[in-house]
Design brief:
Elements lengths: L3 H5 L1 E11 L5 E2 L7 E6 L4 E7 L16 H9 L1 E11 L4 E5 L2 E2 L8 E9 L2 E6 L2 E10 L6
Antiparallel strand pairs: 1-2, 1-3, 1-10, 3-4, 4-5, 5-6, 5-7, 6-8, 8-9, 9-10
Length: 144
């Protein structure tokens, strides 16, 4: 039997990102059509990038010179972080170490995740908010 760490290493594409609101209704924080990738490297590093579809371009056309409102809107529809990850094989949990993050509040945090893998599907529940569920599909190797 392979370990969770061996199984999780690779690149995964976002299938869905669900949560619940205060009334118990299912919500999609970045929309039903959110896209993204999570990558786990064998050397113990990971990166997650998720985004809402349809975010408007900056009127200026430049990468770093949107208006304050444009930049806030873009950031509100994007989630990104990366750093080391640790696997607890017995509990089938991961810990993501937030070494870089679009959200400065997360910098330096260690956030637990509960993971399960069935075939090419990885399901991750946020250990701080177990109702939050992300489903990922393994990406086949890119041939270039």
């Amino acid at each position: 039997m392979t370990t969770l760490k061996e199984q999780i290493v690779g690149v995964w594409s976002l299938v869905s990102f669900k949560d619940r609101d205060d009334k118990g209704n299912t919500v999609y924080p970045l929309g039903k059509d959110a896209t993204g990738f999570i990558m786990y490297h064998p050397e113990g590093y990971m990166s997650a990038q998720l985004m809402k579809q349809g975010r408007p371009h900056y009127q200026s056309g430049h990468m770093l010179t949107g208006t304050t409102e444009e930049m806030a809107e873009a950031a509100h529809g994007y989630l990104a972080y990366g750093g080391k990850f640790h696997v607890n094989e017995e509990e089938r949990t991961l810990t993501h170490h937030m070494e870089v993050s679009m959200n400065p509040t997360w910098l330096g945090q260690q956030q637990p995740r509960i993971a399960s893998i069935e075939g090419d599907i990885l399901t991750i529940h946020n250990g701080l908010n177990p109702i939050q569920k992300l489903v990922w599909k393994r990406v086949k190797a890119y041939q270039f």
